[in-house]
Design brief:
about 5% strand; 9 helices; elongated; about 300 residues; two-stranded antiparallel ribbon
Length: about 300
């Protein structure tokens, strides 16, 4: 018989079993000598007939004893064989389970990439000139950004508000007349107000579907059971698949994921961001942005 790696299985008795077999065999061998050489008056097998009867009487136990050993070895071999078959069955199930997951997983990634490619937003010339380095013709009054470029433009715009607050410049209040800010509020509390208003008024139509789908994609991985009760192997496998998704993020996507996780919109997403280190590749020289790194667990940036 072979194991799941193709190696031949040889069934052997363990040391304890061999020890008891040798002891039992030795006792059976010594019994005739003990009885024929005994000086005990009421026990004597020195006569020929007595010796013959002794040997004949001991032969049957010998045969029964070694027969029992063979039966024991056969049963043990069968038990081991059943365990190997069960292990192979479990491994085959796990393999099929992973294959079925991957078929759906890569389709979901393609769907998510299509969502990004279909993001589109138009900008007036005056509102975009300070947010991104692009060429605009002399008479071009409108620019249509697509895909990941929208993440860059919108990040530069919202960062202006975050930076103004960080340096205590009150100019950001001009765009948030309907929001009250209090001096004793924490930075995170003020950030959430700025983000929530900006998100709802400026980019919900463009980014809403993106964040909902990304959260659902990570959640599907988090809920999937790859290796039964083996939590360590399960986590490593889930981390592997989330790393594939993380590798698709642009720099500005990462910054938006970072911001979204701190906001009211990303309250359910933030624990998954931390659990699977989705911000591991974020590199930012934006001083005002780094002020908010402390609101994430360190796991968000490293496994």
């Amino acid at each position: 018989m072979e194991d799941n790696k193709g190696n031949k299985i040889v069934f052997r008795l363990d040391k304890k079993e061999i020890k008891w077999i040798l002891i039992s065999g030795l006792i059976l061998i010594l019994l005739p000598i003990l009885f024929t050489c005994s000086n005990i008056s009421f026990i004597s097998f020195k006569e020929t007939g007595g010796i013959g009867d002794t040997i004949g009487g001991i032969t049957a136990p010998f045969l029964s004893f070694f027969g029992s050993i063979l039966v024991y070895m056969a049963l043990k071999a069968q038990i081991n064989a059943n365990e190997i078959i069960n292990q192979q069955f479990v491994l085959q199930q796990q393999k099929e389970n992973i294959q079925n997951f991957e078929n759906s997983f890569f389709n979901l990634i393609n769907f998510h990439l299509n969502i990004i490619n279909n993001i589109e937003k138009s900008y007036d010339r005056g509102k975009i000139r300070n947010t991104i380095k692009i060429y605009l013709g002399k008479d071009q009054l409108e620019y249509i950004a697509k895909g990941k470029q929208v993440f860059e433009i919108e990040y530069n715009k919202i960062y202006n508000y975050i930076e103004d607050y960080y340096y205590q410049s009150k100019s950001y209040l001009d765009d948030f007349d309907d929001v009250e800010f209090y001096e004793k509020e924490s930075r995170l509390s003020v950030f959430k107000k700025i983000y929530n208003v900006y998100y709802a008024e400026e980019i919900d139509n463009q980014f809403g579907n993106y964040f909902r789908n990304l959260y659902r994609l990570i959640k599907i991985i988090d809920n999937y059971n790859f290796y039964g009760e083996d939590s360590e192997k399960n986590y490593d496998k889930k981390y592997f698949y989330t790393s594939i998704i993380r590798a698709q993020f642009s720099d500005y996507e990462l910054k938006w994921i970072f911001l979204n996780g701190l906001s009211g919109f990303g309250i359910k997403f933030k624990p998954l961001i931390e659990k699977y280190s989705l911000l591991k590749n974020i590199h930012s020289n934006d001083e005002a942005l780094r002020e908010y790194f402390k609101y994430y667990d360190n796991k968000a940036f490293d496994k």
